[in-house]
Amino acid sequence: MRGLAATGLVGLSAAGAYATLVEPYLYELTNVDIFIRGLPESFDNFRIAHITDVHHSRLVPIEEVARIVEMAVRAKPDMVALTGDYTTTRRRYIEPCAEALGLLRQASASAGVWAVLGNHDHNTDGVLTARALTRQGINILENANTNLRRGADTLQLAGVDDWGWGKTDWARALHGVDRTLPSILLSHEPAVLEVPETRGLSLILSGHTHGGQVSLPFVGAPAQYIKEFKYVGGLYEREGTQLYVSRGTGMVGLPIRFGARPEVAVLRLRRMKSDE
Predict the structure, then answer these.
(1) pLDDT value of position 6
(2) Whole-prediction pTM
(3) In degrees rounded to 5, what are phi and psi of residue 116?
């Protein structure tokens, strides 16, 4: 019995070491094809590097933010999408994080770098965060939308300020958006998939959940049983609207990740075969 107990303690110690020293920095570059109905031919194979929940803080040093940026730059996407929570609680982390993220402009992203804010950004200083990112050449979609252009073709891109913080203005964000044409929405919180305002949009990109940050064998992520974290990670669909939830790259609360590897997602837009 003493031997079994000792073995169990060793196993727990190993798991704890892995969750604190290894997995939080074991970044995964995921490649996902997303099929969009009516996608213009010139946007077929359009690649988006999606980065979220960086959480630069005492738990996530700036060197780790730089590693994430380097991964995205090497992927050479057509566009970079940032979906919030760049820092956690301290204002002093905002400027260094924005400077590191500004290097994403080197990613051969012909369509630019686009961002929305998350709940932790507002908890820290939303105005300062937006200004810092803008100074680095990052475009903030603060309840606004634009058109990405390739020749005569366009792809609608919108962004909402944080829904959970009560900053979302749907009327402004989606003003002029044609729901019969392909569209992408950046929203920090994935729960917006269930609000009526997102019906008819093609794709939503979100973060917020960290993939649960801890996902247990046979159980999954305990966080998914909380309504706010229902869409914990990966690709979902509801009434024709698709949602991709990235596990993000940072940590908040406890300095651990287990079964929820940090992720930089590269999403490749594809035309539906019925459109060809």
Answers:
(1) 39
(2) 0.93
(3) -130, 165
